[in-house]
Design goal:
Strand order of the largest sheet of chain B: 6-7-8-3-9-10
Strand content of chain A: under 5%
Shape of chain A: elongated
Organism (chain A): Peribacillus saganii
Keywords (chain A): Cytoplasm, Phosphate transport, Transport
Strand content of chain B: 15-25%
CATH superfamily of chain A: Phosphate transport system protein phou homolog 2, domain 2
InterPro entries (chain A): PhoU, PhoU-like_sf, PhoU_dom
Order of helices and strands of chain B: HEEEHEEHEHHHHEHEHEEHH
Distance between the termini of chain A: 39 Å
CATH architecture of chain A: Up-down Bundle
Radius of gyration of chain B: 21 Å
Largest sheet of chain B: 6 strands, mixed
Number of domains of chain A: 1
Function (chain A): Plays a role in the regulation of phosphate uptake.
Structural class of chain B: alpha/beta
Family (chain A): Belongs to the PhoU family.
Shape of chain B: globular
CATH class of chain A: Mainly Alpha
Largest sheet of chain A: none
Oligomer: heterodimer
CATH superfamily of one domain in chain B: P-loop containing nucleotide triphosphate hydrolases
Number of helices of chain B: 11
Helix content of chain A: over 70%
Order of helices and strands of chain A: HHHHHH
Largest interface: A-B, 30 and 27 residues
Chain lengths: 216, 278
């Protein structure tokens, strides 16, 4: 017999809000990268302007979580669900900020032709978006195996980041300003992947009630 | 915190208590050791193969839904359960290494070492002073000076001295419910017990009196071992060191309270403490 139907439905609401925030962040990263690829400055501006939606939603999640703790005194898995929602939404909101940062760099690069193909960055972006997808899915289904997979993908992003920076450093004499901005973008993507890995760790904690060392 | 180097990750890794990396300390003394305890009320099997070790100077909480056997268990620890005519018991309960279920064990000895506080405050219809002095007098203490000392010490110990010191000769029935309950705890302390059993001691009290009793329990555990049956799971979480979850006469899980309320092993414990049944 379910005796806390209302609490259950409020927990579900909280989870849905976190997933919605995840979709917003994903869109921010997709749009900003597409703005970069097409050097579409108008689109880059839109990403920056849309960011406050994510900020507001994160605040709403925090408020809802605090109210649930205060009013329902959750324990065990329920408490972990709420704490994880707070932690994960903070990671997701940072991802949206990185989307904004990519958009800002895109504007700084402007319409000058690229000095090098941005294939490494593209590869990083594809893997990172997939990590976000997986992390949201793992959160939704409380799936520890998916969470582990995310950690493995992060290693690949780290490798690509290293390669990107090495390549870009060869080009400093051609256009330092663009090299700097492209390096920043590589860094933003690498950090985004780190936040997806944080989410994976939070999901492991949520499900198992233990902290995870993803390198174990 | 998704550190990129292995070392960083290792630094951040926190092992759980259950994995056993953590608390190292002196071995704890066992007050009660229950071994294969079974109890029947007539045909009804009320306690099934209970095995529990209860430690000195700790608060042990017993939780579980109505009819799970938790009150029966606590009343077995001072053999009050024997007042039910149809009761049958097998197994052992070692109190300080002596089996209290043994025929030769004198129940009077047990009752002077193990005090009990009940759900409803039950002061005697006497003065506050007499409520406390009653037990020591029965045990042969006659000196007024010694009795005065015991009364003050006990009332102080139960955190009620300041509220009653000017009206010790008034009837205890004039006290509020919360005060009466602390008076009963003081009455328990007057015989200088080793263990205090508490059977839902705050379920008839208002929230502030409840918190006072909870604070008191935390202080008392420095000198006594306390076993408390409670319906209030948050109370168990707040005040106990170990928690036993009873269900249908069995102990489903017995663990550190921190673990029970953060990450219990058994699905039934999880369902009960998160309010999904019961």
């Amino acid at each position: 017999m379910v005796v806390r139907e209302r609490f259950e439905s409020e927990l579900k609401q909280l989870k849905d809000m976190v997933i919605e925030l995840g979709e917003l962040s994903k869109k921010s990263l997709e749009d900003s990268f597409s703005a970069l690829e097409n050097q579409d400055l108008e689109k880059a501006l839109e990403v920056i302007e849309d960011d406050n939606k994510a900020d507001l939603l994160e605040n709403e999640i925090n408020e809802q979580a605090i109210l649930l703790i205060a009013k329902q005194q959750p324990v065990a898995i329920d408490l972990r669900r709420i704490i994880s929602a707070i932690k994960i939404s903070s990671d997701i909101e940072r991802m949206a900020d990185f989307g904004v940062n990519v958009a800002k760099s895109t504007i700084r690069i402007g319409t000058q032709p690229f000095i090098t193909p941005i294939t490494h960055l593209k590869e990083m972006q594809i893997i990172t978006l997939e990590m976000i997808d997986l992390s949201l899915k793992a959160f939704e289904t409380e799936d520890v195996l998916l969470a582990r997979k995310i950690a493995e993908m992060d290693d690949k992003v780290d490798d690509l980041y290293g390669e990107s920076i090495r390549d870009l450093l060869q080009l400093t004499s051609t256009n330092l300003q663009q090299v700097t901005q492209l390096s920043f973008i590589a860094r933003y993507l690498e950090r985004t992947a780190d936040h997806a890995t944080n989410i994976a760790e939070s999901i492991y904690y949520l499900v198992r009630g233990r902290q995870l060392d993803l390198n174990e | 915190m998704a550190a990129t180097s292995e070392n960083e990750r290792k630094t951040l890794n926190i092992k759980s208590k259950r994995e056993g990396s953590g608390t190292v300390g002196a071995p704890k003394n066992i007050v009660y050791n229950t071994k294969d305890l079974n109890l029947w009320y007539g045909e009804g099997h009320a306690l099934k193969n209970i095995n529990l070790e209860i430690y000195e100077n700790e608060v042990t909480a017993i939780i579980g839904p109505s009819g799970c056997g938790k009150s029966t268990y606590i009343k077995t620890l001072n053999r009050m359960v024997e007042m039910v005519p149809t009761v049958r018991i097998s197994g052992e309960i070692l109190y300080r290494n002596r089996n209290i279920l043994d025929k030769n064990f004198k129940v009077e000895d047990l009752r002077t070492r193990v005090g009990m506080v009940f759900q409803k405050p039950n002061p005697f219809p006497k003065s506050i002073y007499e409520n406390i002095a009653y037990g020591p007098k029965i045990h042969g203490i006659r000196s007024k000076k010694v009795l005065d000392e015991i009364v003050e010490k006990s009332l102080r110990g139960a955190a009620i001295w300041d509220e009653v010191k000017d009206r010790l000769n008034q009837n205890a029935y004039g006290l509020s419910g919360g005060q009466q309950q602390r008076l009963c705890i003081a009455r328990c302390l007057a015989i200088e017990p080793d263990v205090i059993l508490m059977d839902e001691p705050t379920s008839a009290l208002d929230p502030i009196s409840t918190l006072k009793v909870e604070e008191l329990v935390q202080e008392l555990k420095n000198d006594f071992s306390i076993i408390i049956v409670t319906h209030n799971m948050q109370q168990a979480a707040r005040i106990s060191d170990k928690t036993a979850f009873f269900l249908n006469g069995e102990v489903v899980e017995y663990e550190d309270t921190d673990i029970i309320f953060s990450n219990p092993s058994d699905k039934r414990t999880e369902d009960y403490i998160t309010g999904r049944f019961g």
